[in-house]
Design goal:
Elements (H helix, E strand, L loop, with lengths): L20 H7 L1 E6 L3 E6 L5 H11 L2 E6 L2 H12 L6 H9 L12 H8 L2 H16 L2 E8 L4 E7 L2 E6 L6 H11 L11 E9 L2 E12 L2 E9 L15 H11 L4 E6 L6 H12 L6 E5 L10 E4 L8 H9 L5 E4 L5 H12 L3 E6 L4 H10 L4 H7 E13 L4 E4 L3 H7 L3 H5 L3 E4 L10 E12 L2 H8 L4 H10 L5 H10 L5 H7 L4
Parallel strand pairs: 2-3, 10-14, 10-15, 11-12, 11-13, 13-14
Antiparallel strand pairs: 1-2, 4-5, 4-9, 5-6, 7-8, 8-9, 15-18, 16-17
Length: 504
């Protein structure tokens, strides 16, 4: 019997119902081809008649046996039926075969650990993770409900259903992720946080894990921190030219405070990391205080906030000022104490960056004043405020020309004369964009430089509306106006801009 070469092994798995990977590995064979009456296999021991007879009996076909090298057979099994090969449906079917339903609240930690260590569960979790990375997802959501268990991916800022594993696999899947993150699987009443570092598709990726107890079991979210997705280039983040030149001048100042505002998921951290990468040099010492540290930056001293042991933003900021930094990044200004120390740091010769959760640039100033920050100190230290959002980019593979609805144009507040000269686009939906019509995201921005006029408004403790009026009179564009410019350029759509911006 001639030994077959590795090139003769199939490129895709031969799908045979109820044929387990464990049985193939133990018996040393892999299917090569299957038709109505014959199953062709490569086998390490062609004289293993017990396995041959078992296959004949199970599938009612004749067995054609080829001699295969042990290493070739095992490698083929792993390639074709391992983590990255079987369909999710096949893995779920295999995982659920012998698993009985576990009643929530009655799980035994040792039993859960055993279930989570079963090969099908490991394969299922690994496949869900690798699929998410391939689809450029930023988060994986494992969500328990009364009668179902749902897995969703956040892609380009929007959640999409991924899989619905059987409810009975819920505890095993959640426990598997918790074991990977070295969390306590016996503790299901309190929230837990952890991290995992995995190699996926030849890339090393960090995952941030968060669990919270819900009515029907633990809800778990995995934040995917893929450094390859970080774009350390301000021009590629979507900055319009008129803002980019001003912002580059701003971040080159020797001292003062610079703020970036926007809701969670608006890209503030990515912008600040890009800024730090741009201004990082051997002459500068940069220290960051973050909650949590999302990406590790070369040449930057990064500190993780931990309120449980008293390491707060305010306390950490007091300490790092004594570390003789030139540039400081405070992850977020959440209270008066942090704001006051940040302003003192900026006054004493440090360039300080931070974020605030406000809707626009003018709102950041009034938020700090409402916190109790002295107006004269704020006017002396604040250099500029950047507000941003992320909009989805129209898929270039299925981009098509459209005529927008009149109500959308009305919502944008544009005139009929202006619309007549514009070509509008949308995505039809294709395989490349998973039929969403969008692929990737870009930023829309609003920039408020703190000039003499704005300083006077800060001294007067002016309202958000008053500061915004002054800003508009100076010709500064709002978030929605920058979004409209990107619609005119064919980058995004009107509904996308309306989705992420708020106009009063």
């Amino acid at each position: 019997m001639n030994e077959i070469s590795y090139t003769e092994y199939p490129k895709e798995p031969v799908v045979i119902s109820s044929l387990s990977v464990k049985f193939m590995k133990q018996s040393g064979f892999v299917p090569l081809k299957m038709n109505e009456d014959t199953l062709r296999i490569a086998m390490v021991d062609p004289l293993d008649f017990y396995t041959i007879d078992a296959l004949k009996l199970a599938y009612g076909v004749s067995i054609e046996v080829c001699q295969g090298k042990k290493e070739d057979v095992l490698e083929a099994i792993e390639r074709l039926y391992g983590t990255g090969s079987q369909s999710i449906d096949t893995i779920i079917e295999e995982a659920g075969k012998d698993m009985s339903e576990i009643i929530p609240g009655e799980e035994n930690a040792d039993y859960l650990r055993d279930l989570a260590s079963e090969a099908p569960i490991i394969r299922l979790v690994n496949r869900l993770i690798s699929n998410a990375v391939e689809l450029r997802a930023s988060d994986i959501h494992f969500e328990p409900y009364e009668s179902e268990f749902r897995v969703r991916y956040r892609i380009d800022g929007v959640l999409h259903d991924a899989e619905f594993p059987p409810k009975r696999l819920q505890s095993a899947i959640i426990s598997r992720v918790k074991i990977m993150a070295k969390l306590d699987i016996a503790e299901r009443r309190l929230p837990q946080d952890g991290r995992i570092k995995l190699r996926v598709s030849d890339k090393t990726i960090d995952f941030r894990i968060s669990t919270v107890p819900t009515l029907f079991g633990e809800s778990l979210v995995m934040r995917i921190l893929d450094r390859d997705n970080l774009v350390f280039d301000l021009e590629k983040l979507g900055f319009p030219d008129y803002i980019l030149s001003q912002y580059i001048d701003l971040i080159s100042q020797p001292y003062g405070m610079i703020l970036v505002t926007g809701p969670t998921g608006s890209g503030k951290t990515s912008t600040l990391y890009t800024v730090l990468a741009k201004i990082s040099s051997p002459e500068n010492k940069i220290i960051t205080l973050e909650d949590p540290v999302e990406y590790q930056l070369k040449g930057v001293n990064q500190i993780q906030v931990n309120p449980k042991i008293g390491m707060t933003f305010a306390g950490g900021l007091r300490s790092i000022v004594r570390q003789d930094p030139d540039i400081i990044l405070v992850g977020e200004i959440r209270d008066r104490e942090t704001a006051e120390i940040a302003i003192q740091s900026a006054l004493t010769g440090h360039l300080l960056f931070s974020t605030l959760h406000t809707n626009d640039t003018a709102g950041a100033i009034t938020r700090l004043l409402d916190m109790g920050v002295e107006n004269f100190l704020l006017s002396s230290t604040l250099l500029g405020v950047l507000a941003q959002r992320l909009v989805r980019v129209i898929c270039s593979y299925c981009k098509k020309s459209i005529i927008p609805e009149k109500k959308l144009l009305k919502s944008m507040g544009v005139s009929a004369d202006e619309v007549a000269k514009i070509d509008f686009f949308d995505g039809k939906g294709c395989e490349e964009c998973r039929h969403t019509g969008f692929r990737g995201r870009t930023g829309i921005f609003e920039y408020l430089p703190v000039n003499e006029d704005i300083r006077n408004e800060i001294i007067e403790k002016a309202s958000t509306e008053r500061i915004k009026d002054v800003m508009l009179k100076k010709g500064m564009a709002t978030l929605r106006q920058d979004g409209w410019n990107k619609v005119r350029q064919g980058i995004t759509t009107i509904p996308e801009v309306l989705r992420v911006t708020l106009e009063k």
